[in-house]
Design brief:
Largest sheet: none
Radius of gyration: 22 Å
Distance between the termini: 67 Å
Number of helices: 4
Structural class: mainly alpha
Order of helices and strands: HHHH
Number of strands: 0
Shape: flat
Number of domains: 2
Length: about 150
């Protein structure tokens, strides 16, 4: 048998195993209990184990399915999505949910290479209205809608 390494799948498998191990370690101080009387750590440990097993199976499969190099990183989408998350964190307490929603959608929309500004602006306004109606009106969360 020859190894025909699928690098993207192998990298994702390593990520899953590491994520599962991290979750398992976080739940290590919680009591497990039994299947009849589950403790607080029963489900988190079980899910962490499932994620690690899936990662291990994916890793073994990645060694034999076919050679595939790691794809080039698309920097524009990665940076603009990260910037949108940062915008949300910085703007929400200062300018409120409505303006923050519009800014985040416009920034994240620019991550696409075939973005249409008019459609992106309409989507931003619609999502801002929906966010205010859902989180402030329907759920009653104490989020400022406009700048103070």
């Amino acid at each position: 048998m020859t190894l025909r390494l699928n690098v993207p799948d192998l990298a994702f498998a390593a990520f899953l195993v590491a994520l599962g191990a991290f979750a398992f370690a976080l739940a290590s101080e919680l009591s497990v209990g039994t299947a009849a009387a589950m403790g607080a750590g029963y489900v988190p440990r079980g899910l962490a184990a499932i994620v690690m097993i899936y990662g291990a199976v994916l890793g073994v499969r990645a060694m034999f399915v076919g050679r595939q190099p790691f794809p080039a990183v698309a920097w524009r989408p990665a940076l603009l999505i990260a910037a949108a998350v940062a915008l949300f964190a910085v703007l929400l307490p200062r300018v409120g949910l409505a303006i923050t929603s519009i800014a985040v959608v416009l920034c994240a929309g620019l991550a696409s290479y075939d973005v249409r500004l008019r459609e992106n602006a309409v989507l931003a306004v619609a999502l801002a209205i929906f966010s205010v109606l859902l989180f402030v009106s329907a759920l009653g969360l104490p989020i400022p809608v406009w700048p103070q």
